Amino acid sequence: MLLAQHNEVAAIDIIPEEVVLLNTGKSPIEDVEISDFLINRELNFKATLDKETAYSGADYVIIATPTVYAPQLITLIRQL
What we know:
Blueprint: E1 9-12, H1 16-23, H2 32-40, E2 45-48, H3 51-55, H4 71-79
Parallel strand pairs: 1-2
């Protein structure tokens, strides 16, 4: 989301529901900052299922590896 403030950003995902959420300004994960950016910032951002659309004309490709995002687990670890 930070990059999308000043750059054209295309995100590719394999889950259609997440693409719809992102393109309608909603975060598919619980993340306050991402939600804030999607709702309150002017972004040059689109999500797609199509790799050709995502990669076409790209100057850079950033690959994010999947992680298990569990806010409850993070809270538990911090309490230890």
